[in-house]
Amino acid sequence: MEHKIIKSLFLLLVLLNLVSNCAHAAPQVPCFFIFGDSLADNGNNNNLVTAAKANYRPYGIDFPDGTTGRFTNGRTTVDMIGELLGFNQSIPPFATARGRDILVGVNYASGAAGIRDESGRQLGDRISLNKQLLNHAVTIHRLIQLLGTGNEAANYLNKCLFYVSLGSNDYLNNYFMPTYYTTSRMYTQDQYAKILIDQYSLQIRLLYLLGARKIALPGLGPIGSIPYSFSTLCRNNLSCVTNINNAVQPFNARLVSLVDELNRELTDARFIYLNTSGMSAGDPSMLARSDGQCIQDSTPCQNRNEYVFWDAIHPTEAVNRFTASRSYNASLPSDAYPTDISHLVN
């Protein structure tokens, strides 16, 4: 009996040692920088004057640190990509990142943010991509202070992963809101996609000039099929849903072409496209406000792992895990182009 107990304890120690070694293995990149909207926001909007914030229950009900400002029940896609990269802590939001915290990277994402500065303004304050890039310049200044010289900071940034995911709000909270915005009267869907990608191209090239060399660019999912679009923007009109889904296809096609162009021109950098549109589908899960977010202190369903949507806009942790996994290690050739994140970083 004693022999069996000792053997069991020994096996437990071996397992604990393996877990410990695994958890503390060096990440595949020294740092991870995230630019985005509410799909990636982890607290940057908490102190802004805006309806686009998630620092109340039931958001975060399944997250180890509780309610942090993440627009889901648990972890976001970028949280899980960070874990797959080997980070044993989540990347801090710019709003609270201090001191040496920034050495693992910074999350600049902001709910309601867009490629265009005006997108999402009807919801209140938000940090557009242009402002996120300005915040990144502040981080670089801090990195220079920590690492000693501009060259040291540049060499450090060259090795990091940059994840840039915006565009949904330029449609949902701009183009398809004619009451607040004139873009749908000024541009056809194809013209608008071109204008967005032209601006996005300049922003991504600026990020390159600021030291980014490994850049992942997710496309837009079928945003017409999210519960908010179906019930609020489209009033259950299926042709409207199809119209919104069709509108983002030229954006995605142009983004793939942009990836090709950037890889051709900036030969010391690598850019990839992630086909999030090919990774998604589903049904709504819980009560949401008219703007698509959770009603404060509402009671979520118990079988959250069986749902695609957490509120009327944002996916559940279960779907985020699925998206992160296929972004990191493509299940199908169509998941990522020309390669996935695991090959981008190695």
Automatic annotation (TrEMBL):
Keywords: Hydrolase, Lipid degradation, Lipid metabolism, Secreted, Signal. It is found in: Secreted. Gene3D superfamilies: SGNH hydrolase (3.40.50.1110). The keyword Hydrolase applies. GO terms for molecular function: hydrolase activity, acting on ester bonds. Coiled coil: none annotated. CDD domains: SGNH_plant_lipase_like. GO terms for cellular component: extracellular region. The keyword Hydrolase applies. Its main location: secreted. It holds the Pfam family Lipase_GDSL. One of its GO terms (biological process) is lipid catabolic process. InterPro entries: GDSL, GDSL_esterase/lipase, SGNH_hydro_sf, SGNH_plant_lipase-like. Residues 1-25 form the signal peptide. PANTHER family: GDSL-LIKE LIPASE/ACYLHYDROLASE-RELATED, GDSL-LIKE LIPASE_ACYLHYDROLASE. Belongs to the 'GDSL' lipolytic enzyme family. This is GDSL esterase/lipase. It comes from Salix udensis.
